Each structure stands twice: as C-alpha cells, then as structure tokens.
C-alpha cells in the first residue's frame, strides 16, 4: 500500500495487496503516483483507508479514465475503509473488475499517453448541505462498447459477467466539494515489462549447483585408503579356518579312539594317531604365526608407502631415516635403508 497524510490506498488481487514500485509524490498537484504489476485475467479491487474520519469526505474510483463508483462518508469517530470491487451496471447488478490483455496494442511505452492502464482514486473533503427531498436516481456505470482508438498499453480494464447485488442506499444530503486532499494513481503493467524497463527489480538469477568431479590421474591426489580392516578380516578368516581344522581333527581322533576301544584295536595305534594330530596342530600354529608376521610386514609397507605418497616431495633422505627409526625394526628396514643410502660401490 501507499500512504500520505494519514490516508492509505492499495490495489488488491486474490485478497493480497499488490506491491508498488517507483512511488513518487507531486506536492504541487497533490498526486501520488506509483506502478503495480498486473496479470491478465485476474480480478482486482481498490481500497482506501482513512485513519481519522473526522471530516465529511467523498471518494471516487476510476479505471482507464472511466468512472466506476463514488462513496460519501460522513464524519465520525475512528477510522473508515472505502472500497470498490465492481462497477454497478444497474440498481441491483454489478460487474467485477478484470485486468485484461490489450489485443489492440501496437507497442508499449513507459509513460501512458492516455488514461488507459491507469487506476485512480480521488479523495475530497466536502461540505454537508441541506437534506434531499426529491427522489435521486442512483449513478450507473456504462461500460464502453468499443475502444475509440488503438491504445499503447499492454493491459486494460475489462468487466466480468453481471451479477445480482443488493441496491445501495442513496445520498441523503447534497454536498459541496471543499478540497481535493489527495489523488492516488496506479499505473498497471505486466511484471515482465516493469522488470524490463527497470521499474521493478529483476528476479535473482537461478542458482547453479556445483558438481564436484574427480580430477584426472595427472593432477589428482588420490586419498590413502587404509586396508588394515581388510587385512584383519583375512587373518581372522584364516584363523577360523585353522581352528576349524583342528577341531575337526580332534573330533576324528576321539571318534577313532572310541572305535578302537570297541573293536579292540591296540593302544599303540591310537597313540600314534594322536601324535599325528598334535604334529599337525603344531604345523598349523607355525603357519598361522608366519602368516601374522607376513600381514604385519604388509601393513608396515602400506603405511610407509602412504607416507611417501603424501610427503615424498618434501622428505629428504635424512628425514626418511628418522621416520624409520621411530618405528620398531622389522625385516624390511634394512631394505629401505639400503634404498635411501645406496653403497658407493
């Protein structure tokens, strides 16, 4: 809404006040002018609110230079709201107000050359005169049958289908205009036009989603992936397999001993089978220890390779030796030291 001197005015579509742009007040003409966005096919209404209705007033509404309605408000305590949502076509019928596309428009200009594309409110202070004694005919709006000439605005005001409405009360007194307190002028155009000429701000550009892609092999730094979990899983699987074999052999041995006792087999044969099982268990334990050492060495190799991959450009031979000294000596330390300090021969 726009406001001046305790009086506010607005144009409403779907119950929502339209935004105003480029608001300008001419103090010499006592006119407040602004631009509003219009949408073809939308019904609109006009509102004027008076903060303090301590004077007699008359408010007249116009669209495209056509008189729509006029309302008289006698002074009273408090505020007052005057609105125009339709144009009366008879005592008990009215037509709604519509923004419509102007099919006759040839071009679009920033400043209107006529009253087309313009909604106006004139607010007057009036003097209350003698009471009316004669019958007064109500004011009736007569919509134009056809445009008089080609207009240069993209949108104009048209009128919807007539609807039945209750008759309005007639004026009870004559009035005399004292002073036009304010006129509000709303120039309506499509939002695209207001943005194109810089009256309304342009919409923000669409936000592009940035998709991170992996660099090629030449310029990418591949992250080190610790395979320790995989190595541990492999060791656990092997250990479970060895333990399973041991239990299987022991089960077979116990069954064999039981069978031998039943069949009368000599204890020497049974003892030899038990010794064979124990020997197999010792071999399995030795194999498992060897595998654990191999896995430990592989983990250390992977760790050193990871360090070299990340810090190789900045690590000297002396620093490399220092890194190796921080870890417990292993079978691969002598090989790495030999690589860092090759023999002069």
TrEMBL record:
Residues 209-242, 264-284 have a biased composition (Acidic residues). Residues 6-201 form the DUF7918 domain. It holds the Pfam family DUF7918. Residues 249-258 have a biased composition (Basic residues). InterPro entries: DUF7918 (IPR057678). Residues 199-284 are annotated as: Disordered. It comes from the Eukaryota. This is DUF7918 domain-containing protein. It comes from Cylindrobasidium torrendii FP15055 ss-10.
């Amino acid at each position: 809404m726009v406001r001046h001197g305790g009086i506010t005015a607005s144009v409403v579509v779907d119950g929502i006040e339209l935004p105003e742009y480029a608001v300008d007040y001419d103090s010499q003409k006592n006119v407040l002018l602004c631009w509003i966005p219009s949408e073809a096919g939308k019904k609109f209404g006009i509102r004027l609110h008076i903060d303090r209705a301590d004077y007699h007033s008359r408010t007249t509404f116009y669209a495209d230079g056509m008189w729509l309605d006029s309302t008289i408000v006698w002074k009273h305590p408090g505020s007052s709201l005057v609105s125009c949502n339709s144009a009366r076509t008879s005592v008990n019928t009215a037509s709604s107000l519509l923004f419509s596309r102007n099919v006759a428009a040839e071009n679009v200009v920033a400043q209107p050359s006529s009253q087309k594309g313009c909604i106006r409110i004139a607010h007057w202070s009036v003097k209350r005169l003698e009471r009316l004694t004669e019958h007064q005919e109500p004011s009736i709006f007569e919509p134009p049958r056809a445009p008089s000439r080609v207009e240069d605005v993209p949108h104009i005001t048209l009128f919807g289908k007539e609807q039945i409405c209750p008759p309005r009360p007639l004026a009870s007194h004559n009035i005399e205009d004292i002073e036009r307190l304010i006129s509000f002028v709303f120039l309506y155009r499509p939002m695209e036009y207001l943005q194109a000429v810089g009256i309304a701000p342009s919409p923000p550009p669409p936000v592009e989603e940035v998709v991170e892609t992996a660099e090629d092999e030449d310029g990418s730094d591949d992250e080190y992936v610790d395979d320790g979990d995989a190595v541990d899983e492999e060791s656990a699987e092997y250990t479970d397999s060895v333990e399973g074999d041991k239990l299987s052999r022991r089960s077979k041995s116990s069954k064999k001993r039981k069978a031998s006792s039943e069949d009368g087999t000599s204890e020497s044969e049974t003892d030899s089978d038990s010794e064979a099982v124990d020997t197999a268990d010792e071999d399995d334990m030795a194999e498992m220890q060897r595998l654990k050492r191999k896995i430990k060495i592989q983990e250390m190799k992977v760790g050193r390779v990871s360090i070299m991959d990340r810090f190789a450009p900045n690590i000297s031979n002396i620093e490399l030796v220092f890194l190796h000294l921080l870890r417990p000596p292993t079978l691969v330390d002598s090989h790495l030291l030999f690589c860092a300090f090759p023999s002069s021969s």
